[in-house]
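Question: Hello, beginner here. Any chance you could explain the protein record under this note? Any guidance would be welcome.
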Amino acid sequence: MTSAREKMASTRFFIIAAICIPYAVAFVKNQAERDDFNGKAVEFFSGQDKLASQVEVTPSPDCLEGDMLLTQEQKEVYLAMREVTAANRERVRRNAAAAFRVWPNRTLVYQYEAGLSEITKQVFQEAVEVYREKTNIRFLEAVEGIYTGVIQPLIVRQSGQGCFSTVGCPSQTCGGRLNLQEGRCALLGVALHELGHALGRFHEQNRPDRDNHILVIESNILPGYEHNFRVVNMPTVAPYDLQSVMHYSTVAFSRNGYLETIIPYNPRDKAKMGRQHMLSRLDTYTFNVAYDAYDICPADLWDRCSRGGVPNKHCTCDCLPAFEGPFCEIVTHPTACSDYSTGPSGTIYSPGYPEDYPSNTECTYVVECADEEVIELNFPMFLVEGNNCWFDKMSMMTGDLISEVYMDEYCDDILQGNQIVTSSKTSVMVFVSDGWLNFPGFEINYRCVSARG
């Protein structure tokens, strides 16, 4: 039997969905809530939450894997990297190191093509600033008439068809092209991805260890493009990263646009692949390794980083939101309802439980067990406002924290009576409610269990 409150929540969703998005703000009281809702609604209804990854895998002329423009030497080496054997492994590795170089002096030199639109310049510059902030790589604009360096710049253009880039420093004096087709590729996610190629990165889903993390459905791939999914014997320096800015989405090169070509073994990761809103922490780490950012850092920096922390260019650790300190050693308590729980077992309640949770609440819950243990989370009660988790939601990190970027989001009664077992000894949960429609909330029973089963 549907309650009056559930009917009201359902009505709110259908009213908002039925009218134009700009008018939807009338249903949300707080300005920050309106802004957050509008952004999510526009992304959801227009499909823009994964637009960047959909755009860039549209095949560009003369490019391998949709968007990698290779020299003839690079193409020959890259194809050989797909056919590595015990007999040729060392030779292929040497050839790859010579063909795919990083930019010298940790500096990518770039130049805007004459006539490049201000929009394209702005998007490219935004991507540059992300890399500049997160990595030790320097970026130098080669202004015509002023720049006199011997390194040839990467030409940023929009006149070519598609979104693509050369890979790394393609010759002794570098150079190359990065194309952001006007009216199609001027998206931050696209620019981050293509700039990643220009700095020397390949696609994440072609790594030699990818079959441990994803399943490629060849029958769903656009005929003639199956080669884009071939495993490449490339060097790897970080764990596999499903949330990397260099990873394809679930429908990349789909033969009809919606059949999935890549399925992660963990179903909760499906919505996170191909979002490309930012560099993941493992993206940042990989670029910093390639450009020698850690030469001055302690050799055991990885070991010092706790709770999913990843080494950064400052020789400290990039922490998840619930932690801080040089090595993520401090658990934060951002609000009064936030809590830090340790084993062997316990219960977490929503604020005010069993009464309805209050409006405008944000609570962070961290559960931590001992080494060699994981967390068993059981949900005997879970009822949070639904509506695609735009308003109230429980966001959770229950996977390998090192590779987490986008949290899993749950609402409605989807977790009622269910169990989640984490992949690590630490779990982070963030509950948020908005200013309208409150529900009973949740009861979460946790238990520390052996990671060995």
Observations:
- The chain has three domains: 49-296, 297-331, 339-450.
- Residues 1-9, 13-49 have pLDDT under 50 and may be disordered.
- The chain has nine helices and 21 strands.
- Residues 118-134 form the longest helix (17 residues).
